[in-house]
Specification:
Layout lengths: L3 E6 L4 H5 L1 H9 L3 E8 L17 H16 L3 E7 L21 H15 L3 E5 L3 H4 L1 H17 L3 E6 L2 H11 L10 H4 L11 E4 L4 H10 L15 H8 L1 E6 L17
Parallel strand pairs: 1-2, 1-4, 2-3, 4-5
Antiparallel strand pairs: 5-7, 6-7
Helix pairs in contact: 3-9, 4-6
Amino acid sequence: MTRTLVCFHAHPDDETISTAGVMARAAAEGHRVVLVVATRGEHGEVPPGFLDEDELLWQRREAETHASAAILGVSRVEFLGYVDSGMIDTHTNEAPESFWQADIGEAALRLAEILLEEKADVLTIYDDHGNYGHPDHIQVHRVGSRAAEIAGTPAVYQATMNRDHFRRMLSAIAGQEGEGGPRLEEIEALGLSEDELTHRVDVTEFIEAKRASMRAHASQISEQSFFLSMPDEIFAMSFGIEWFARHGGPPRSGDWESRLFAD
């Protein structure tokens, strides 16, 4: 039975971290996968000379998103049309066209329209603090939650990070020379604790597709980055499991669930 998975993200490249594996797995199993992105990542940073003459960053990031989606087997990519709000406590948070300033109800209606068109079986959003506190990620949680209510989407999962897993991984990645590796104090603010999670999805079969989808976002994830400079085995240990908390459901009381689609 073919089902539809909709993954809602804040910016181009966000899909590569927390849901690339489940997207690739769902597509490989014959399901329809839809990627919805709230913004085009206008406030990302690129080195001087990276963009072509007269090319705008959002144009490059939109193209990178489509390239990533093709790698993962995504059937449809949609942008909700909001502007990147930038990192927390920056002046760009206040821009009226930013996603952070969007009316929740209006934004939810935009997403709900897609959910209804697609007859979505599963929607992924983020946890309520946006995994690490980014304003647009928090807004994904709020807007996605409301959109699922409007559309009657039967299953909603919060794509997040297992804080305890990353704490355990810290010793394994210590000394990596790539840019942007997490420090212990940063890990304490990431994702959710293990007892709050309901789903542990093993995506190691699709780890190469996941890494390739990161490479597709070259404007934001360079070969020298923390993600792509990891040795293969450390990358698989770090990103071969994707973690979710069932939205609005009971806490886990036994074994991990391993699939987002109910059998």
